[in-house]
Specification:
heterodimer; A: alpha/beta; TIM Barrel; two-stranded antiparallel sheet; 9 helices; B: mainly alpha; 3-stranded antiparallel sheet; two-stranded antiparallel ribbon; 5 strands; 55% helix
Amino acid sequence: MSALSSNVKGIGLGLRQPIADALLERLPKEISWVEVHPENYVERGGRFPHVLGRAREHWPVVTHGLTLGLGSVSPFEREYVQTLKKFLHEVETPWHSEHLCVTGVDDVMFHDLIPIPLTRAAARIAIQRLRELRDAVEKPIALENITFYAEPGKSGMDEASFVLDVLDGADALLLLDVNNIYVNAKNFGFDPRAYLDRIPKERVAQIHIAGHLIQPDGLRIDTHGEAICEDVFSLLEYTLARLGEVPVLLERDGNYPSLDVLVEELRRLTEIYERATSVKVL
Amino acid sequence: MSDAAFDEVRELQRAFKRICFDASPAEEDLRLLGADPARWRLYREMVRLRLRELLQSAFPRTRALLGATRFTTLGNDWLTAHPPRTRYLRDIAGEFARWTSGEMRTHENVPAHTHDLLALEAARWECMHGQERVPANVVEFEFDRVPVVDPGARLLTLEYAVNDESVAEPRRGSFHVCVHRRNSDYGTEVWTLNQMAARMLAGWKSGDETAQQTIARILREDGTSADEKFIDGLGTVLSSMIERGVILGSR
């Protein structure tokens, strides 16, 4: 698949406004590419497009959507899909990703990632939607596995089977979020490595990695606002050793540390990447 | 897929929507979603918290004026009456302001200048994030051409001088401001205008008059003529409009 032979390699970082100026000033060598949310840039003026323009001078850009949840029953807003298509082609993303979840229903948007039932019916909705989006934007589409804290409705299958069902049915790529698998494994009591072992190598376009929060009751919440924990670093190494050279994106969306701390985390990811894949990226 | 299977998934999604945005989650919806109801309440809180935080960022002065509790209640009322329709998080502020400005007219004991403050903060927010839509064929400013006003600039007429942040109790009267985005750092600026400047900008923003025609019309309406003092003042204000990027040129 063309997505897998793009110039997006090694370790990337989510381009977020609170850290953008510092990144663009320092241009850390540990960053090989950046990821952006199209919703933050399309039909917008001022600082955001300015920062994106500067970032594109230095790094390849990959897009990651927040509002076209692949599990929603509501039809796509055609005007937005056309706007998105234009943006994806302008920034030359090799693929575009959306979440395997619901982000809105009818005309209401949640501005959050809401779980869908792990059933055949929900999978078929996602398959159809993913194909429709791919045809409309004319880019490969990767679906991202999400974290969830409750499963709506009656369960039909385990999460890994559900994700694989959608991937196969839509012939899609996967944005494999290793932290999300870990969080779900802890919250619902399954073996994350067994889940990862079932993921077909050829489907994986990209990996996400992030930190999460542990609540006082033990529930783990996917915040993207904490440092990556040791278990997740280990799981990433396990994943990369199995999948090989898949680009890894550090998501940091809040509670930003100093750039030095962030770069140190990126350096650690680079070490893991190089050790697991035997590919030098620095 | 059967219609029944599709309907079942849709009903779960609609139940979730009600759990998030209704005044309080219905037991029936919690039962329909299954699992631990506390987890669905957690989702409700996460969805609402993100939106509340956005409103706090966009309307810090309105929140301070009304107090945190009352502002949160307004936010909750808005979520119940008009949950977010936009996919752009940045546009949430505008949706809230439009609903709230109407809703607050029915509230008692709201400080009189709250409406103006809400409108000013909404204008600043929207101006900061709005898309540049620079018209084509803009040339250097000329008096006998139609001035091109930055489409992102917003003109407000305020009943209270909430543009003056230095006073707790703003004066009542008629105040004109232009909210625009600076090109240097993409921040917004609230520029206080006199009545003449406000009328000129309003004319140029919406009409097809040349600069000369607008000025002549305003003088005619006011039954005055352009004396030396007026011409000096006009030069200063036009230079300022051009320097600030409020006037982009002429067409």
